[in-house]
Design a protein that fits this description.
two-stranded antiparallel sheet; about 5% strand; about 325 residues; two-stranded parallel ribbon; globular
Length: about 325
């Protein structure tokens, strides 16, 4: 009993918890390159398999698998943008710049929007840059019908399912060009490169190859990426606070989920399910996140979700923040 009491007194909180994660920021350069290049090789092999394979079913399987591997490489790219892996490597900069064009998440807009998200995660009254908008129930009811429709459209399951079009093509590229072209020229380059590549595949290899090589992998990766980002901050039990009550570590532990995934999905998502730890310290390499979870008991109590149908449905039911009851609720 005394031991438990002493442990409770010593539980890490606030900045102490953030400081406890600092030793895990150390990168293993060999591992970073190994995971990056092996994932890239697997992706190239699968994309090649969508064109040259023994049977159409194997081509389809390669196409579907490629979509999940794009998700993994995107999370690795995301880590590089956080400077947690391969920082100051010219070769990595070139590689990930090209990959950013390929997935329509060029480095300029991705870094700006995602950095803003980390600094303002779960702030109720901040801009929704880099994240899904959150209205209080009162604000939603006072909004015009067109504003309500737009808000619900952004959070609609079909919009998230077509995340490659709405989150990446429109949100990352077209919108950044419209808002501030001078700072987002790379968004225009990404669109030109992407559409040129898609057109070339369609024209020279045919529509059936275009579906397998382009449409299916991008649809799967876009849907998976958009949903992961949604569910990691829009789940039962997530909290949102006004600026005066907001803390960085509180937002990480109370408004960022731990997504429980099977071993294959942990691999495909490069451990991004440990999202609360990532928000505690974004400089921890993705391959060290499980290590942090094992080492720091305080990180075990965070709220959880998964990709099980019941959890997916529970996340999609949440629409607005109820100020009175201090929780996310539906509109029914």
């Amino acid at each position: 009993m005394t031991t438990i009491f002493v442990y409770l007194l010593r539980m890490l909180e606030g900045k102490q918890l953030i400081l406890a994660t600092k030793p895990f920021m150390k990168e293993d350069r060999f591992k970073s390159w190994y995971y990056t290049l092996s994932t890239l090789f697997i992706l190239i092999a699968l994309l090649f398999g969508t064109i040259h394979n023994f049977h159409w079913s194997l081509k389809l399987l390669s196409s579907i698998a490629a979509g999940f591997v794009i998700v993994r490489l995107f999370v690795i790219y995301h880590d590089h943008q956080h400077k947690s892996i391969l920082n100051k490597s010219k070769a990595a900069d070139i590689l990930f710049t090209i990959f950013g064009f390929y997935v329509l998440a060029p480095t300029g807009i991705w870094s700006r929007s995602h950095d803003y998200h980390h600094k303002n995660n779960s702030k109720l009254y901040s801009a929704s840059i880099g994240s899904y908008p959150i209205y209080s129930k009162q604000k939603f009811l006072k909004s015009s019908k067109s504003e309500q429709r737009h808000y619900l459209f952004i959070r609609h399951p079909l919009t998230i399912a077509f995340g490659f079009i709405f989150a990446f093509m429109w949100g990352m590229c077209f919108q950044s060009i419209i808002n501030r072209f001078s700072k987002h020229i790379d968004s225009l380059v990404a669109l030109i490169v992407h559409f040129a590549y898609q057109f070339a595949v369609f024209y020279f290899l045919g529509w059936h190859t275009w579906i397998l090589l382009c449409a299916i992998p991008h649809f799967i990766s876009g849907a998976m990426g958009a949903y992961l980002f949604y569910a990691q901050h829009n789940f039962p039990g997530a909290t949102f606070k006004g600026n005066e009550d907001w803390t960085y570590e509180g937002a990480a532990l109370e408004s960022s989920s731990y997504m429980e995934l099977s071993a294959p999905l942990k691999w495909a998502t490069a451990n991004i399910g440990y999202h609360h730890i990532h928000h505690i310290n974004a400089r921890i390499p993705f391959y060290r996140l499980p290590e942090v979870m094992d080492a720091i008991p305080e990180l075990h109590t965070t709220k959880r979700t998964s990709l099980k149908p019941k959890d997916v449905m529970a996340c999609f039911k949440l629409k607005v923040w109820d100020l009175e009851n201090q929780k996310m609720v539906g509109l029914g």
